Structures are given as C-alpha cells and as structure tokens.
Amino acid sequence: MNSIVLLIVLPLVFAFLIPIFKGLGKYASKIVTILSMLTGMGFAVYFFITLQVPVKAILGGWKPPFGIVLVGDKLSLLFVMIIYILAFLNLFFFDNNFKEHSKFYTLYNIAIAGTAGMILTGDIFNMFVFIEITGIALYSLIAYSGKEQALKGSIKYLIIGSMTSLFLLLGVTLAYHILGSLNLAHISSKFYQIPNNLKFLILSLIFTSFFVEAEIFPFNMWVPNAYKGANIPIAALLAGIVSIAAGYLLFRFRYLYGGMRSFGNMLVWFGVITVVIGEFSAYFTYDLRKILAFSSIGQMGLILIAAGISNDLSVYGGFFQILSHSIAKMLLFLLAGFIIYEAGTENVKKMGGFGKNHPYLTGIFLIGALSLAGIPGLMGFWGKFNIVGGGIAAGRILPISIVLLAAIAESVYLIRVVFHLFKTDEGKIIEKKKIPLGYLMVVILLSLTIVVIGVYPQLLNQVLNDATKIIMNSGSYIRMVLG
Amino acid sequence: MITFGTIVILGILISLIIWLFFRENKVISWILFILYTGFSFVLLLRLYGQWQYYEAFKSIIYLGNIKIKFTLQNNMLGWIFAILIFGISFFNGLFSLGFSKSKYSKNIVPLWTLILSASILILFAKDFILFFVGWEYLTWPVFFIVNQGKKKFYSDSMYYFALNVLGGMALMLGIWLVFKNTQTLDIKTSISILLSHKASIHTFWLLIPFFIAFLVKSAAYPFHVWAPRAHSSAPADFSPFISGIMIKFGIFGILLFIYPLLSKGFIPGTYHGVPTTAYFLSWLGIITSIVATVLAFSENNMKRLMAYSSVANVGYILTAIFLTTPLGIEGGIFHTINHMIFKVIIFITLAAVYFRTGTADMSKLGGIAYKMPITFMTFLIGIIAAAGIFPMNGFTSKWIIFQAILEKHFYLMAVAMFFASTGAFLYLYRALHSIFLGQIKPEHRDSVKEVPFLMQIPMWIGMILIISIGVFPGLVLKPLIPFFNSIGLPAKYILTSLSKLPGSFGQLNTLNAAIIFGFAAVLVTILFFVVAKHHKKPFMDNYTAGEDPKDWGVDENRYQFAYGFYQPFEKKFLPFFKRSVDMFWQYFGFYTKHLGEWFNNIFKDDNNFGYIAIIGIVIIFIFGGFVL
Amino acid sequence: MFWLFLIGSIGLVLIGIFGLITRSHLIKLLLSLNILETGINLTMIVLGYQNGGKVPIIHSLLDLTKPINFVDPLPQALVLTSIVIGLGTTALALILIVNYYYKTGKLSLERSENEKENIDE
Predict the structure, then answer these.
(1) ipTM
(2) Is residue C62 situated within a structural domain?
(3) Which chains form contacts with chain C, at 3 or more CB pairs under 8 Å?
(4) Tens of pLDDT along A227-281?
(5) pTM above 0.80, yes or no
(6) Is residue C29 part of a domain?
(7) Which residues from chain B sit within 8 angstroms of residue C111, using beta carbons?
(8) Could you tell me the residue range of the domain that residue A137 belongs to?
(9) Hey, is the C-beta of A172 within 8 angstroms of any chain C C-beta?
(10) By C-alpha distance, which of A482, A468, A471, A467 is closest to A190?
C-alpha cells in the first residue's frame, strides 16, 4: 500500500495550490489549509484505524535497503494522525497581532508535510531532508510576525539548526560509509558490528540535530526569543507539533543506541540539565509566553530523559509525555493568545481579573497547567509517573531526584500563573471581550481530551503498548522493512 | 451499594456542578455540601465491621508492562479516619452555611468536595497509585482555598503549596523505589515483601522519601512553617479542616506504611527495645511540640496561635507512634482522633469570633465572653481539652501517651513533653484571656452578639463529644479494638468497659473520677452562690487595682496585654526557634529564584547562542570519551 | 592525497566553527556557516573517495567480471542535495538578516540600549 505517501504529499500539494486560490478572497488560503488538514487528518485516521500489519511505501521502485522507503506502523501513523489533528485544531487560533496572508498558510502546510515526513520516513538521509524542509518553513514562520524578538529567534534557530543539520548529514554519511546503507532498519541490523566509540560518534552527530528540534539545553538559545516573538499559532506549532516529531525521532533511534549505556547516560544528563534550566528559568520569569516556552524546554528535557533510560516503563511514559505535553502546551498557547489580547499585556502579574471575566476559560487553563505539572487525573500524570518509575527501575535515582526537585518549581510557576489569572484584588479592571466560537470549541475539545485520557488512560493503553513494543523490539521492524 | 465509588464520583460531580452553575450562590453550595457529607457519612457508617469489603475498578491499567487493577479496600484505620472526616465536614458545613452570610466567606465548596473525594482515595487505596492520586488532590485545591484569589495571602499559600509539592514528589520517588525493590505497587504486599528481604535493601534510604512526604503533610519540624501561614490565610471556616484533618493525613501515612516497617525492625538497630530510627523520630516529635509551643507564645494572630498548637499536638502524636509500642500507638491514634475533635471545635469558635468581629488579631479583641456565651463555653472546653486537663478528651489520650513513654523509661522525653504540655497551658490561657476575657472593645459593645443557632450546632455537638469521650474513652477505643488486636496490643491494654482507661500502671476509671470531679464542681457552684458575696462591677471600675491607668499607658480603649504577653519567653526562645527555620525556607525560595535568574541570563545574552551550542557538542563528545 | 583532502576539509569545518563561536556580526556568522557547510560537504566527498578510483559508470559488460575500484557515487548525490539546501538556507538567512537590519538598524543580535526591558523582575 503506497498510499501513506499521501500524508506527506497532500499538504505539499495544497501548499502550492494556495497561491493559485489566494485571489478568491481574504480567507481563501485559510480555507484551503483547513481543507488540506482535514483531508490529511481523514487519511491519517483511516490508515491508522485500518492498519493491521505495518505498511511500507517503496518509492521509485527500489526495494529497501536501496531505495527510499516510508514506514507506517502503529507508532508512526499514530503520531502523524495526532500531528494532523493538532495542526487542524491549531488553525482556530486567536491572535490579535496576526495578519492574514497566503504565505503563512503555504509555509504552514509545508511545515506539516515536513514533520509528517520526519516521522514516516525509514531512511535517514530523507530524514535530513525533511528536517531541513520543516526547519526552513519554521524559520520563516517564526519570523512571520516581523517582531524583533521573532527575527532574533528565527536567525538563531536558523544558524544553530543549519549547523547541526550539517553535523547530522556528516553522521549520516559516516554511517553510510561504514555500513553501506542509508536505511534505518538496515543500519540498525548491522549497527552492532562497529566499535562502540564509532557508534557514539555517529549517533552524537545525528542527535545534535534532534536536540535542536527538541529544544534541549545547549541548543535551545532560540526558544525564548522564538516563542516570545512569533505569532501564537507558530508558538503552538513549535510546542505542540514539532515537539512530537522531535520526540518521535529520539525514541525511534533507540534502534541504534539501545543498550549503549554511555549514550543513554549522555541523553539522561542532557535531559536533566535541560529540565533544571527550563524549569528554573520559567520559575524566574513573569512573561506568560516565556513561561510557556521555558516550560516546553523542561518538558522536552523529561522526554529526553525517558529516551535515555529507554526501558519499557520509560518509553511508554515517554510517549505519554510527548502526547500530553503537545496537547496541553497547544491548549495553553491557544489560551494565551486570548488572555494576552484581553489583558493587553504579557506580564502575568497584570492579568488579574481575567479569571473573573472568563472563569471557564481560566478553569481550562488550570486543567492544562495541572496536566503539565503532572497532577493525577490528567493526561500529564501518566507520562511523568512512568518516566520516574522507569528511571528508578533502571537505577538512575540521582537524575530522577533532580528532575523531581525541578518539578516542584514547575508546579509552582504553573499554579502561580493560574493564581494571577484568578486573583481578584487587582486595581485595574480588564475589559471583557468576546470569545470566538470556533476557538472556544477547540479549547474545550483539547481540555476534554486531557481530562478523559487522564481519568481513563486505558484509551491509550493498547496503542501505546504496541508503540512501546515497536520501539523495544528492533527485530520486527528490521524484518518488516527489509523483508 | 458501591460506597467508595459513589462518594468519590459524587464529590467530583458536586464540585463540577457547583463550580459551573452555583459559583455565586453560597447558600445552595453549602446545602449541597452538607447533603453530600451527610450522605457519605451514612454510607460509610454501614461499612463498620465489613473489613473484607472492597471495590475494584473494572478495567486494568497498564504502566509499561505492569498491570494494575485499582482497588479500594475497606480497612479499620481508614474507616475511622473517613467517618471522622465526613462527620466533621458535615458539621463544619452547617457552620459554614451560617458563616456564608458574612463577607469573609468564600465559596470554597467545589474545591472542598474535591478534597473529600481525594481523601477517600487516600484512606482506602490498596495500591500506591490511587494513594498518590488522592495525595496530590489534597494539595493543589487547598492552594486556591488558602489564598482565595487575594494577593496578600499569596505568599502564605505558596509556602503551603511548595512544601506540599515537595512532599508529593518525594512520595512519587518513594513509591517507585519501593516498586524497584518489591516489583509490586500494592501497599500491604510491598510491606511484607520489604520485610521478608530487608537485608538486601538499603533500608534507610528507601524510607526517607516517605518521611519527607508524611512529615511535610503533618507539619512536623522542620516543615512546620506552612501550617501557621496556611491557617491564618485560609477562610475562617476552612481552618478547622486544615488543622483537624489535613495534617492528620501525614499521621495516616505513617501509620499505613512507615509504622509497620519500623515496628518489625525494617531498619536494623534498637535502643532500649525501640528501633533506633524510630527513637530519633520520637525525639523529632518532641522537638516539634517544643518548637511549636514556644512559637505559639509570641503569636498575636489567634489562628496562627492555634495552628502552632496543632503542630505541637502533631508532635505528641508522632512521639507516641514512633515509640512503636502497642501502648504508644494506641495513645497516638487516640490522640489523633481527640485532637481532630477538639481542634476543629476550637477553630470553629475562632471562626465564630471572626464572623462577628472580623479580626483575627488577639490584641484587637477582648471581653466578648458575655456577648458570645456559647462560643465562650465551647472555646473554654476546647482549650481545656487541648491543655490535657481532666475530664476532657485531650486528657485521656495524653495520659496514655505519657504512660507509653514512661513504660519505656524515657524520662528525659517525658520531661520534655511535659514542658511542651505545660507550655500549652500558657498560650491557651493567653488566647482565652485575650479573646474572651478582660475588657470589651468599645466598637464591639453593640455589634457583637452570639452566632445564630445553626452555627451553634457544631459547638454543642463538639462540647458533648469532648466531655463524653473524656469521661467514657471507650466510646472511641472500643470500636477500635479489632485494629488494636491486629497490631498485637496486649490484652491488659485493651479496654474492658467504656470508662476504664488502660495503662502500664494500672487502669484509670474515668467515670469514677468524673463523678468525683462533678461532685466537687457542684459543691463549688453551690458555695459560689451561697457563701460568696459578689456583685457586678463595670469593666472600668477596678481593673487597674487602684493604680492610675494613665501611668500604665492604658486607657479605656487599650486594656489589652496580648502584645508581648510572654515577653521574657519570646526574648529567650524566639530568635533560635523561629528565625532559624523560617529563614531557611525563605532563603531556599530566594536562592531558587536567583538560580532561575542566572539560568535566564544565559538565554538573555543574544550573542552566545553559537558557542553555547558548540560547547554542547563538545560535552557530548566528552560523554563519548573522545575529548578527555 | 586522501589525508590531505581530509585534513583540508576538516580544517574548513574548524574554521567555520571558529567563526560561529567568535563572531557576532550576522553576515560573518552566515559566512562561517557556509564555510562549515563547504567543509562538511568536502568531508563527505572524501568519505566516498577511493584512492585511484574510477568513475562509477559501467562502459562494458567486461567491467562487471573483475573487481574495479569505483568511487562511491552516493555521497556525491547527497552533497548535491546538501548544497541545494544550503543555498536555500543562506538565501533565507540573508532575507531574515536584511529584515532584522531594517527593523533594528543593527547587524548583530546584541541587545540595544533602548530596548524595552520587560516584565522580569
């Protein structure tokens, strides 16, 4: 079944249709994008539901390990499906600084195509290409708002991103030079043959690029600028959708680094540093967007820790964490758009009274914040809980303890935001503004998802267990792709 | 009838319904609250004796490849706590219904019902996950209750929240450490497995996270700093709940998990027959009570004062429990229950005072005993119980605790505890005097009157309970006999009748003592009315004992000694006791913030992104062993 | 020859990294990035290079019967892609830098004096 190609091609086709249709009206390009996301979503859901055995799409007629191959198994199709759903919901954003323009939607479609490609591809050179496609779309999208911060973030992201993707390319070429293949399955089937330090070199060259996408500490200098300056939908895109793809790649490459204690150590400690720096920076700042940005950094650090530990429990928790983080963070960014618009400021301390005007919206914000903080009964809990469990089961008690200490700061700053929204004794009274209906529906839908899955995680149990098995068991993947 | 599930789900539903529809209507909210707690109380009451009863969730949850079937298992200890929690909340709800007329009242019902639901999970959880779920839901709603959306209460509530989140995180760590060593998340099973191969485990480290979690929740030293802050900021009608119930969950956790391990010698080493760790923790209890007692001397805010009193009582309870003797645990549990009752009653009377006067500063109160006689009586009985004087219930449990200590011949501990206990007289009397006795403030002369009957109901019930448990301790101890049997209490310590208080030095018949006491009281009353010549005087008549009030710097409006009442004590003890611990936590927050600033500055410098990334790559290579 | 090639290309990589670390002028940063890119592209070519290797084109069926020392063609194809992507990235970066210059009048990311220092305490 070659049709999973559609998941990458469709948004690309729509992306380049947009310039043709843009003359039809102000909202023509938005409607085209909605259509694009809806069709993509439809296909993704269809493929995911009807999937019995993993499928691969062989492009160009060259059988793996030679040609380009797209792999659709339970894991990758799940993630692509969620990317499409979130990308669709993200279009109902609210941002008063946003100027409608067809360019934005073209780039948006390209970015989605890129992330879907990153996930679906079974070939590491194509992964590089898709990372670059996503990257270029994102650099432009971040700069789209035209603010100084956004431009700064965009330039930083561009330079770090290009630099690390060059390293990625070097790693890919090294792997090819030594093992004679570019196919992930083929490489992982032969990876045990090469000496450990060479393995480490190849992997670290590849992972620097993932680190940039995943906002891991030394490579995330662009994050606060980008989240602060970019339009709300882009911040949500970065936090909610790109992070899924980056997290996916971190776990998928367990085929290569699984069982390498030294590399796992490296990942865990980078994760710990990222968590600590992200959470404490967020604890310090009072700028709503920066808080969310730093919180993203912290959450991605946790995902990296899960990838580094990479036993059953932590991989399972890591997937939960990826999903819960992207949903909750997208929810919070969407809400932040309206909150900032109504309060007229990005300073959390001056937002008092919003809770009085919109108690339900603030309640939804509370749900998102508590989910990020890992309060039970919400989606975020299962991720954090399992990652901690996996870490301790693997004997990494010190890193996990540090993460838990940082998590105190996280809970504090998240609940602090909610407090400032709810607080009533603020002198200034914020003028109440009307909430767009579509936006409200999306926000409610996302929060309901968080609550329902949090209370009833069995909904995802089966799917994520399958996904964990796929990651933990490289043999079946190799057989599936090469066989 | 599915009891636990009904209570939990009903609580969540009521919470949602009230928050969505009746946020502005306090009366309906409180009526729903009363109905909910009363209904739950009745449901729970039917479960007495059915200790095999359990409720299991239908579906199985997978964590990785661990399968968990959530189960709520009825148990004696949880049941007695649950009954008290819902009973107290019911009467507290009655009080709050009346209190809701005041402008100081907030609609905290949605959050409160959430906490009650969570408490069921904690008390009856069979596995650690449900326990943890309940534990977290005990934490965050209280943050919003304490600060009530007001900036001035923010820092107080944050003390509460940050410390309790620390406890929660520690609990999470502890749960997984236990899992690592036992491969199970079931509480009872894990205890027996831990005990069966304790030699191979670093036992002390395993328990530290649990100590932190439970000691934070029970506001023991050095985590006690949140208690006075949370009590004073919380709405007046919620403070009873914090003191009476919230901090008891720490005790419950200790009884549930730490006590069974320690008493069976999980950590090696004993001192006079007591496990060494437990012995030190007993001393921690003593330190807690002494520190809290001394700090209570200097408090001017009545709610903070009583909060310190709660901390001191938690100290007694911890001491008793960590003696790990049957008598000790009997005293500990009994005192937990007694403290729940009398401290709730005390805080309810304080709320009544607050309801009428609108202030919690004792220096702004005084002389309202005649205006609020029922409240005064209740408060009086409450503090007599708190001071541990016969015939109130506080006496009976303190009696057992003292005997438990003396039974082990820990005389220094007994003396220290006696010091703390005596200190309680000092500050409790001071509270009584500053709030109710002395001269009434001119502004209170006309405005203050007794609270309405609805709000008096809990007080009456409380008075009856305090005295009747004091006279008939068997009312509480008899239903607990199955539990005491299960922990191996020797037969001589088990109650034989309602009023025979067991002990290592023989039994004390509280009924006989009460009869003598009552006889004496009647006699004194008769003498008072028959013999003494007394006549009423206005307040300003002779209170300065012949001196000119001007010389003292007091006048009609300033007859109040609440400020610096025990100044010599304060000067001696305060710098050490208060500043040291409070400063520690303050600096903790301060340096955390500065750490955050330091990290933030890395991001703020716009030119360093290139070399920081390169440094990152170099560090990766260092991990790989290429560079160094 | 091989080693000279390798050392030269790695030298280019190091020059690029040096530039990225030390410069703050945006155009210079971009130039460093391009030097780095060239270095990495050359390294990749080196990795596929065989000393005395031949062009990987089969002229006659005879070639298949004996082992021939081909130069690996795939890295060159990869480098081609990489060059194209690098061109795109550079163009985009230039546009961003120009925009940034129009917006702020600066060519480095340094914080200006009058930039409103926000919210953080």
Answers:
(1) 0.91
(2) no
(3) A, B
(4) 988 889 999 999 989 999 999 999 989 888 887 888 888 899 999 999 999 999 9
(5) yes
(6) yes
(7) 604, 606
(8) 2-482
(9) yes
(10) A482
